[in-house]
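Input/output pair, single chain:
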Amino acid sequence: MSRRCILYACALCATALCVACSSSSGHPDQDSAVVRPDQVLDFNTLYTQNCAGCHGPNGKGGAAIALGDPTFLAIADDDVIRKTASNGVRGALMPAFAKSAGGMLTDQQINAIVHGIRTWARPELLANSPPPPYTAQPPGDAHRGEAVYGTYCASCHGPNGAGGEKASSIVNGSYLALVSDQYLRITVIVGRPELGAPDWRNDVPGRPMSSQEVSDVVAWLSAQRPMFSVKPYLSSSAEHGAGESQ
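Output:
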């Protein structure tokens, strides 16, 4: 074979290799572009990366409350969810996600998360039984709360809150040190259905808890919280908010 033929054959092989490489699945298209992390606005991506680890896939609940629960979404409005996602919760395990509070998400990304969570709302499920409000007004009374606890909670959590056959302790010092009063109120109202814990309507069938009873039992639980000279958790710079993760 002549030298000219050899060079021609090599050129053909090189051209074929270039075409094969440019059409392979690992080669980016000419029109493709790398999206910067702060430009990602897809809700599923943002929720999976930032929220699902605690609140569970699709908001079904995990270490923290289920953000997709219709009762939670009935008491927590967009502003409440936005403030909590942005600023976190002081003295709890809910971190701040907004850049303005030391996190990594832009305001647009926070809004995308809020709007995505809101799509899980099912207001028709609670049309005939509106839940107690998100905030406590007036404040609860711990003395009354002890009686409320005996009526609505003791059958599962034991007479003193230290645990029973159906549920664990809710006066454990470590647990109460890691959760805020607002989180306790949310849990009493919403329940933890993924764990078998009923909401405010079903602790005693046919006898839903009033807003004041919720406030009173939260005050009683709060009174069981131990006072630590040094908190056993990292403090956030944020104030109390909604949808708290711990």
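The two ends are 78 Å apart (CA to CA). The chain is about 40% helix and 0% strand.
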